[in-house]
Amino acid sequence: MHVFLWILGLVAVAAVAVAITARWRRAAEVRVIRCPETGEKQAVKVDPRRALTQGMSEDAIQLTSCSRWPERQDCDQPCRKQIAEAPDGCLVRSTLDVYYAGATCALCGKEFGDHVDWAVHEPGLLDESGHVSTWEQFPAQQIDEVLAVCQPVCWDCTQIQRLAQEHPERVTLRPHRKSAVES
Fold first, then answer.
1. Among the four 32, 40, 70, 105, which has the fewest Cβ within 10 Å?
2. Boundary-marking domain end, from 85, 104, 127
3. Does 175 map to a domain?
4. 18 in the same domain as 80
5. Same structural domain for residues 35 and 67?
6. Structural domain harbouring 70
7. Average pLDDT over all residues of the chain
């Protein structure tokens, strides 16, 4: 019985650690807000420690980075109100979830479905020149403009294209052919 209680305790501690880690990562993600001072979109990050301990109220939110810094690092951070009103709505990841939901890969035609597993299989973007990249390679505050001109690419095709772009001498790309099942 003693061993069972120890195991149960370890499982409980592990579950709490996983939950805290997930909340920490979510709080630390990049957000896009409209700067009250300029009216332009800016990328910001909040202090995840404060978000976890004090919540996501306007008074508790503290920015750790902004795309207007270091020039405007001394501003009074009025954009915190936008984050407090919609903490998940201003996440770049939320914008990307909507973009990929129900889409199909521009290269192989695979459907994304309703949910993208960002932790394991992050999809890519195909730009007008045929280059595949990930969203992190673009400024977060320009994500809407990037998504307007790019096409979604599944994780498999993103990895293949990345390898082909980095080591063209090692990869032979052939056009996708429909199989008898797909016809």
1. 70
2. 85
3. no
4. yes
5. yes
6. 2-85
7. 86
28 to 51, 71, 141, 169: CA distances (angstroms): 9, 22, 16, 39
Is 176 inside a domain boundary?
A: no
Whether residues 81 and 97 share a domain: the answer is no
The token duo for 183 is 């016809």
Give domain status of residue 39, yes or no.
yes
- Over the stretch 58-100, which tens digit does the pLDDT of each residue have? 888 888 999 998 888 888 889 989 888 887 888 888 889 899 9
